[in-house]
Amino acid sequence: MIFRFFFLKEVKKFPFFFLLLAFTLLLGTMGLMGISIVSSQVQEKLKNNANELLTSDIAVSARRDLFPEEQESLKKIFADIPHREYKIVDVYSMITHLRAKASRLVEIRAVQNGFPFYGKLTLRSGEYHPENLYISKDLADLWQVQADDELQIGDVTLKVTGVVEEDSSLGLRGFSLAPRIYFPLDKLAATGLIKPGATGSFAYHYHLNKFSEPKLQEIKKAIYANIKDSAVKITLPEDSSEQTGRVINTLTNFMALSALIGLILSLVGVFYLYQSHLLARLKDLCLLNLHGLTKGQIITGIIGQFSAIFVIVMIVELFLMVPVYEALAPLLSNNLGIELTPDVNVMGALTDMPFLYGLSLFILVPLLFGLMRTPMGLQLKASKLSMGRFRFWDFLPFILLLWLFSCYLSHSFRTGNLFFGSLMIVFLLSTLVVRFGQWIIKKIIGNKGLLIPTIENGIALRSLTRSGHKLTLSFLSLAMGATLISLILQLDKMILKEFALDNKKPSLFIFDVQEDQMDPLIDMAKANGSPLAYITPMIRARLEKVNDKKYVKKKRAYDFRSKEEDEDARFRSNNLNLTYRDYLTESERIIDGKPFPPGGAPDDRLPYISIEKRWAQRMDLDIGDKLTFDIQGVEFEGTVYNIREVKWTSFYPNFFVTIEPGMIDAAPKTFLAILPSGPKEKKLELQRLSVEKFPNVSFIDVGELVGKLSGLFEKSRQAIEVISWLSLIVGLVILYGLSHDQVYRRYYDLALMKSLGFSATRLRLNLLYEFGALFLSALTLGLFLGWLIAQLIGREVFKLSPSVDWSRLLYPAGLLTVLCLVTILVSSWRAVRAKPRELLSDS
C-alpha cells in the first residue's frame, strides 16, 4: 500500500520531478561508473596475465648479481622441487646502428634458453629463439632497421634477426626509459658492459612443474630465511601485476576523484529537488499522518521511493555503459598500452554501488530529519505550510561517507584528505561569500526603494537578500565546477611548462662512468667543444643503523594498504645510492639546518650528512640523528646536518643522501654528469665518440625523456579534463532545475510585474541581473580557488614557483558566464513570455 502510494501514484502525478531526479542521478554517477568499469577491466586483465608479466612462477632479483653463497642457497632450496630455471640480466647501455651510424640508449634484456616460461614474444616474421638478437618495434621504427643490419653492443657486433612486435611481459609499462633489445646471455660478458656500478638488474626465474600457491609461499619464506640481504627481492606473479598496474591505477584514481565532484554536484540537485517536492507534498503527507500512517512509515516510503529510482537509474546506466565501453575498448587499449577485452564484467562495476547509494541516500537525511520534526497536525491548521528545520549535524553521515569514499577512490589517505579538505574549503568559502554578500547588499540598499538605480536592479538585489540556502546551493554548485575546471587548466599549463626544454635543463644525462674513464671522458668532451658539468660520484651503500640501533625495514601488510603505505614500503629500503660533495645544484635548497662547512670533514668529528626531505620523512630521520652505512663491507658513521628539498624534474644528478667530502672519497664508485644545453650536433658527436671509446657509458637524451613525460601527462590531462567538463554539464543541468524552480516559485511576482507594465525584455533583465551577479561571483571564487589549489599542488609535488596564466582564467570565465546566462534565459523563457492570467492559473 505504502509502495503503491509513494511510487506508482507519485510517478504518475509528478512525472517531470522523477524524470529530472533520474536524469540528475544518471549524469552524476555516469563518470564514476565508467571509470569503475575501465579500472575493473584493467585489474582483471592484469590478474589473468600475472604469470605472463613475470614470465615465471617466482623470481629472485637484485641490482647486482647474486653472490656465490646466495646462489648456493637457491640451489639447495630448489634441489628437491621439480623445476626449470633461467637467468635474465637487464642492463642499460648505448648501442650503435652501424649502417645509420646512430647511437642511443637501450635496455638490453639478456636471456637464456627457456625464456619466457609464460607469455610470448610476437615477431614480425619467424619464431623467437633466445640465442639471437631481436629489437623492439619502437627501436625498429626509430632507426628504420632492415634485415641483417648490424648493431654494435659494447665490444660485440651482431646482426638483427627480427623485430618484436609485442612482448607480453611488458604489459602496461606506462613509462620506459629506453626501448628494449633481446640479447643472448652467454654473449653478454663479451660485450664488456657488465662493470661495477652498471645500471641493471639480475634475476633468476623459476617454473615449478607442479604449481601450488601454498608451495610458492613456502619457497618464498625459505628464500627470505636463507638470504638476509634486503637488496635481494622476491617477486611473485601478483606482485608483478601490481607493479605493472600502478600507472593506470594512479590515473584512474585521479579521474575518479574528478568524477566524484560531478556526483556531489548532482547530489546538490537531488537535495534541492527533494526539498521542493516534499514541501509541495507536505499537505498530502500531513493528511496521511492524520489517517494513521506514522512518520516512520512515511519516511520509509520516501526511502523506498528513492531507492527504486536509484536502482532503475543504475540498470539504465549499465545498459548504456556496456555498449559505449565495447565501442571504446580499442581506443582505451591503445592509450593505456594494454589489450583490454571488449567483454564487460558488470560485477566489477558494481563495487562502487554501495558508496554511490549511501551518498545519494545520506544527502536526504537532513530533509528526513526535518520531516520528523514537522508537527503534522498543526501544519494543517497553519496558513502557510513549512517543514521542520534541519540542523548542520544532520549532514554528518553524508560528510563522513564522503570522506571515506574520497580515500577509497584515491587509495590514499593523504590524497583523500587533501581532496576532501579542498571540498570543505570550497563549501565554507561559498557559504561565507553568500552570507557576507547578502549582508553587504542589505547595508547598501537599507530602506531605499526599488530604484537602485533602476527597478530591475532593485528587484534583483532584494531577491538576492531574501534567498536562503537555495542561493547557497546554487552558488556552491557553480563554484565547485569552476574550481575543478580552473585547477585542471592551470595545473596542465604549469606542468607542461616544467617539462618544456629550456637553457636550464641539461642536454644529456650521463651515467655508468667508471673511475678510470672519467678523466678521459672529460678531456674528450672538452676537445669536442661540449664540456661536462656537475660531475658527481655515485656510491652504492646500505643503511645499517640509526642512532646505533639496527635499521629494520618495515614489512608491508597486504590485506589493505593505502598508496602512501605502498609508496613508503618501496622507498623505505636501506639499499641506496649516495654521493659526496660540498655544494648544492641549482635544483636543491636547504630547508632545515646549515650548509656543510668548507674544507671537508676533519678527523676529530663524524662527517656531516645531508638528506632529502621526503626520504627523511619516510625513513623517520631528523637533524642530529647518527647514521651508519655499509659500503661493500666497510662501515662508516655520520650525523644528519641538514635537510634538503630537491626539484627532481630538473634532471640534474641528485641523491637522497649526500655526505660531506673527505670520509668516503676513496670508496668504489661510478660517476654521473650532465651535458649543458647546447647545439644538437655537439650532443650527437659526443655520444658517437663516447660509444666508440667507452661502450659501457650510457646517455639519456633529456629532450627525448621530456617528450615522453609530456606525452604521458597529456593522456592523463585529457582524460581528467573530459571528466571535468562532464562535471560542469552536471552543474548546468542542476542550475537549470534550480533556476526553473526559482522562477516557478515567483510566478505571482512575475504576474504582478507584467500587470504593472513590465515587458518580457525587462523581466529577462531582472532575472539576468539577479542570477548574473550570483554566477559571476561564484565563477570568480571558483576560478580563484582552482588557481590557488593548482599552485599548492605544483609547489608541493613539482617544486614549481607560483605563476598565473590569465588566458586559462579569462577564457573559461567568459565561456562559463555565457553558458550560465543562457541556462537562465532558457529556464525562464516560458514564464517571461506568458500573460499574467496564465501565470496566476499556473501558480
UniProtKB/TrEMBL annotation:
Recorded hits in InterPro entries, A to Z, give:
ABC3_permease_C, Membrane_comp_ABC_pdt
User: What sections of the protein cross the membrane?
Assistant: 254-274, 298-322, 355-372, 392-411, 417-437, 722-738, 767-789, 809-829
Q: What single Pfam family name could you report for this chain, choosing any that match?
A: FtsX
Outline the extent of the ABC3 transporter permease C-terminal domain.
Answer: 722-836
Question: Which Gene Ontology cellular component terms are annotated?
Answer: plasma membrane
Q: Which UniProt keywords apply?
A: Cell membrane, Membrane, Transmembrane, Transmembrane helix
Q: What is its main location?
A: membrane
Q: Where in the cell is it found?
A: Cell membrane
- The keyword RNA-binding is annotated on this UniProt entry: no
Q: Topology relative to the membrane, per the entry? A: Multi-pass membrane protein
PANTHER family, alphabetically? Answer: INNER MEMBRANE PROTEIN, MEMBRANE COMPONENT OF PREDICTED ABC SUPERFAMILY METABOLITE UPTAKE TRANSPORTER
What is the designated name of this protein?
Answer: FtsX-like permease family protein
Protein's organism: Peredibacter starrii
